[in-house]
Specification:
Blueprint lengths: L1 H10 L12 E9 L7 E2 L3 E4 L4 E5 L13 E5 L3 E5 L6 E2 L5 E8 L6 E6 L10 E5 L2 E5 L4 E2 L4 E8 L6
Antiparallel strand pairs: 1-2, 1-3, 1-8, 4-5, 5-6, 6-13, 7-12, 8-11, 9-13, 10-11
Length: 162
């Protein structure tokens, strides 16, 4: 009887949080006023999340007068950091959405919480949202430069790896 009570107690403990480590992710840049008619949709790059920098985007050439601002993206188990060490100083083109999309290979609602880490962020990003396994970061109209950075702390669901 005592063992059954202990087993039931252990089963009631919260499930440990998930991780982004080891997941496949495609990173792209999109700019649009109407989502179905983007001005720019950069070539996506897909990697497996591991140690170090996952993405180092460079300009791809002008599309409709717009190009990619160089950005470095590092993804940790529960954190994403963006920085612009090789960019000049400027301002992102203004549109309803001009930003980054990280699509993780899963059918699960991967992100339970997304929070901007004020200590690791210099940009005034205010619009971030998740859809299933995708994370959208809108930087429309914001300034960028070598000192600009954005750090996101994430609560990741315990979704199965694809």
């Amino acid at each position: 009887m005592m063992r059954a009570a202990i087993l039931c107690s252990l089963m009631a403990l919260p499930v440990s949080a998930g991780t982004l480590e080891g997941r496949l992710v495609t990173f792209t840049v999109e700019t649009w006023d109407i989502r179905e008619q983007p001005f720019v949709q950069a070539r996506g790059r897909t990697v497996m999340v591991g140690q170090g920098v996952e993405f180092g985007l460079e300009p791809e050439g002008l599309t409709g007068g717009l190009d990619i601002v160089p950005v470095t993206v590092e993804i940790g188990p529960t954190r994403i950091e963006l920085s612009y060490p090789r960019s000049g100083i400027g301002r992102f083109y203004e549109a309803k959405f001009n930003g980054y999309v990280l699509k993780f290979e899963t059918e699960c609602a991967l992100f339970e919480k997304v929070a901007i880490d004020p200590a690791g962020t210099t940009m005034k990003v205010t619009e971030i949202w998740a859809e299933t396994g995708a994370l959208y970061i809108n930087v429309s109209g914001l300034g960028y430069g070598p000192e600009a950075k954005l750090a996101l702390d994430l609560e990741v669901a315990d979704c199965p790896l694809s």
